[in-house]
Specification:
By secondary structure, the protein is mostly helical. The protein has one domain. About 75% of the residues lie in helices and about 0% in strands. The chain contains 7 helices and no strands. α3 (about 45-70) crosses α5. The longest helix has about 35 residues, at about 110-145. It is elongated. It starts with 8 loop residues before the first helix and ends in a 7-residue tail after the last helix.
Length: about 180
Amino acid sequence: MKTDKTMSTDTYLAMSSQERKKKRGRFRRVSKTRIFDGHLVKVSIYAVTVMVLTYLFVTALISLLFSYFHAVDLSLVFWTLLPGALLGYVLLVVERTLGRLKEFMFPQMGKVLTAFLLFFVHIICYLTLSSIIVGYPLGYVMEKSWGMPGMAMEYSLFSVNFFIILAVLSWLRNIRTEPCRCV
């Protein structure tokens, strides 16, 4: 029998479907848990923990970079922790909602139109939620408490770049996964 590297196309096509699934199964991810599937509001502790910690890190990193480049006090990083955690939870619920939206749009509109529409929905949701949950509270703290006028606008413009990248990555993840038929 030939090894995997020298296996011809004819041999691969002649394999039964069980053997092909077994062969493909080796290349799948280790974790079978999909945190973006499931009920919209009833989320598992694992999913909440992953998203909250991820966005705590992301918002803290954005604020750290903003503090470095704009000569703002480093305590701004601590002011981003609570809004970052809240943003992580809200985006988890939004991602699950967008998964449900994809589930309903996919059979009726097809893959290309669904992907096109979901791209704009992801961008708009991420930018709106990041501005409302993180940008406005931090801007208020910087302008009213610290007496730095104009820093809210600077922080919003600085963080938008990062959240656009996160929205595109989330959209790519959403498009690559099959629609979940979760209850």
